[in-house]
Amino acid sequence: xxxxxxxxxxxxxxxxxxxxxxxxxxxxxxxxxxxxxxxxxxxxxxxxxxxxxxxxxxxxxxxxxxxxxxxxxxxxxxxxxxxxxxxxxxxxxxxxxxxxxxxxxxxxxxxxxxxxxxxxxxxxxxxxxxxxxxxxxxxxxxxxxxxxxxxxxxxxxxxxxxxxxxxxxxxxxxxxxxxxxxxxxxxxxxxxxxxxxxxxxxxxxxxxxxxxxxxxxxxxxxxxxxxxxxxxxxxxxxxxxxxxxxxxxxxxxxxxxxxxxxxxxxxxxxxxxxxxxxxxxxxxxxxxxxxxxxxxxxxxxxxxxxxxxxxxxxxxxxxxxxxxxxxxxxxxxxxxxxxxxxxxxxxxxxxxxxxxxxxxxxxx
Length: 364
Description:
Helix 1 packs across helix 2 (46-60) and helix 9 packs across helix 10 (320-330). The chain has helices at residues 20-38, 46-60, 119-128, 146-170, 173-190, 251-270, 277-281, 288-291, 306-314, 320-330, 336-347, 352-363, and strands at residues 8-10, 14-16, 62-64, 68-71, 74-77, 80-84, 90-96, 99-106, 109-116, 138-141, 193-197, 201-206, 209-214, 218-223, 227-232, 237-241. The chain starts with 7 loop residues before the first strand and ends with a helix. By secondary structure, the chain is an alpha+beta fold.
């Protein structure tokens, strides 16, 4: 069983930033409050001003320190969990001169920043939180599910257009202003996309479509003007867009960090050949794993110990069939360390089907 990384004590303050979704909701709430102070002649300005005030004030966030503790559960101050690991989708180290900052993302929005003394200390932070290569799926994209964001985008566009037309026709500026705000939000929702980089490959989601690409089919990855380009075996290329709007962080910096994370996962994948037992487990009959552990063996398949099954299930270069069969077999074992290894493998798996299979078997 792999050892947990040690906790890391830092003489640094964590800056937390409210998510964009909460800022937008706060803007809608502040609108009617501002309307009471603006009076009837300027009531149409209430919603836009409420939006701008909420985004501006809540973008600053708050600082918590001056010392924090970082471990596999997140970032702590005393006994208060300031930033849970589960709330982080993507993290990287931003370097500016002699200073370095660990940026934490939730969806496509910066949710926290932690200043560190050096890039090496930043790497230790990611290691302590188990956010490095092979430990966690790095997700960058819409804060909302991509399909849901697409539906909301079309709804906002239609309602916004109808609001502008109705407001102008009825001579109601506040209705027209509300429609303009909806039209302002709609493009960002409609262009929502998601890139997930795990230990086994990449999952690209755009609109209502999702595609998984194994690293075995990837030759390389590079930046493009609006996102990244993935070069595939056979000469094909796959484009993946990064978030349209990144608040307070340069888009180029985020693209560069994402490409670096994918290249690190790709290097790790190529350096991890599948165990020899993976080929043996694939020869198992279709229904064998459903009835009992493959470690019992049959006349066609030699017995496999729990250690070998775990090695197959957690190996990103083993075939999906071999990993799924191994996880089915492990669902019947009682060893806690094996269940923990399955949970960690699921946490780092980008393939939606295999991730679900690993998660189900781990919790069964």
